[in-house]
């Protein structure tokens, strides 16, 4: 089962989040019939969204993320709530580009750099808050790191990794988020930076079978950690048909009338999960009548 662990160093100078989302990214690839390149990009975005959401949200809060660098992948859209229930899609799930010299996916070329990362936080009873930053590297993790520093004023390090094997199957996918808290010394920050610079990517460590405590030890050396919580990470359930009926009810009456007269019904496809919702002519007439 996929999981996300929240922890803190004993001295309170760092918070650390770690997730293994291999199953979820596999399922997302199956839903969207995505190319290996698109799977890597969408997987990284889902992982970064889960980590960021868990660090920022509580209760019924949600975040909606849109990344658009005007690259071949198109727009990347992800959402999560405080319970790490996620959904996401990319505009072009078949996108593919030449690999880097080391054989790894060229994520910055796929994503593009002529655009931004936009994150909207939705909290019950409050106006939605949107923060937006220019893309820095297009690697996804770096861009979330920059967002947290600029829009949330939280010094952070975000690392995300998806390993797709030679059979185009997701073998491992995971990530980490480390946040610096008040009181952290320059020496501690330098040591952390050195440790992170020497580490293999997180999917490699998960593939080796390393447990959370062992991975945290690679981040922080001998510094003791306290595990605060471990929560499951899952794909969000599909929205009910009524949600889409209500959405249709917000359309101009001329559009609904045209659907009835010309198409004698409507089909809505949920871009997050591929589910199709059929509305008959009678159902559309009822929606139209309810809006009068």
TrEMBL record:
Q: Could you tell me which Pfam families the record lists for this protein? A: HSP33
Q: Which GO terms describe its biological process?
A: protein refolding
What keywords would UniProt list here? Chaperone, Cytoplasm, Disulfide bond, Redox-active center, Stress response, Zinc
**Gene Ontology cellular component list:** cytoplasm
Quote the PTM field: Under oxidizing conditions two disulfide bonds are formed involving the reactive cysteines. Under reducing conditions zinc is bound to the reactive cysteines and the protein is inactive.
Q: Looking at the keywords, is DNA-binding present? A: no
| An MF annotation (GO) of this entry | protein folding chaperone
Query: Which InterPro entries does its entry note?
Result: Heat_shock_Hsp33 (IPR000397), Heat_shock_Hsp33_C (IPR016154), Heat_shock_Hsp33_N (IPR016153)
Q: Which CDD domains does its entry note?
A: Hsp33
Matching entries from SUPFAM superfamilies are given as: Hsp33 domain, HSP33 redox switch-like
Q: What is its main location?
A: cytoplasm
- Taking the record's annotation, the residue ranges forming a coiled coil are none
Where is it localised? Cytoplasm
* Entry similarity comment: Belongs to the HSP33 family.
Q: Which NCBIfam families match?
A: PRK00114.1
* Function as written in the Swiss-Prot or TrEMBL entry: Redox regulated molecular chaperone. Protects both thermally unfolding and oxidatively damaged proteins from irreversible aggregation. Plays an important role in the bacterial defense system toward oxidative stress.
- Record protein name field: 33 kDa chaperonin
Give the species this sequence originates from: Oenococcus kitaharae DSM 17330
């Amino acid at each position: 089962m996929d999981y996300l662990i929240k922890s803190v160093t004993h001295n309170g100078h760092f918070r650390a989040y770690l997730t293994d989302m291999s199953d979820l990214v596999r399922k997302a690839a199956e839903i969207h019939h995505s190319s290996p390149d698109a799977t890597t990009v969408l997987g990284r975005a889902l992982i970064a969204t889960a980590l960021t959401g868990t660090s920022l949200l509580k209760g019924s809060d949600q975040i909606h993320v849109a990344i658009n660098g005007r690259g071949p992948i198109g727009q990347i859209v992800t959402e999560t709530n405080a319970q790490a229930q996620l959904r996401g899609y990319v505009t072009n799930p078949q996108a593919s580009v030449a690999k880097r010299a080391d054989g790894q996916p060229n994520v910055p070329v796929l994503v593009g750099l002529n655009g931004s990362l936009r994150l909207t936080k939705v909290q019950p009873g409050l106006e939605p808050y949107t923060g937006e930053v220019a893309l820095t590297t297009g690697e996804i993790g770096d861009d979330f790191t920059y967002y947290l520093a600029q829009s949330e004023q939280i010094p952070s390090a975000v690392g995300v990794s998806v390993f797709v094997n030679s059979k185009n199957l997701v073998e491992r996918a995971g990530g980490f988020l480390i946040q610096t808290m008040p009181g952290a010394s320059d020496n501690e920050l330098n040591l952390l930076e050195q440790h992170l610079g020497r580490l293999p990517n997180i999917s490699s460590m998960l593939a080796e079978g390393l447990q959370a405590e062992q991975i945290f030890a690679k981040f922080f050396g001998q510094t003791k950690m306290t595990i605060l919580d471990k929560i499951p990470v899952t794909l969000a359930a599909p929205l009910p048909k009524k949600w889409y009926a209500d959405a249709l009810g917000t359309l101009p009456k001329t559009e609904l009338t045209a659907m009835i007269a010309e198409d004698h019904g409507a089909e809505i496809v949920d871009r997050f999960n591929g589910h199709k919702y059929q509305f008959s002519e009678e159902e559309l007439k009822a929606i139209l009548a309810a809006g009068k």
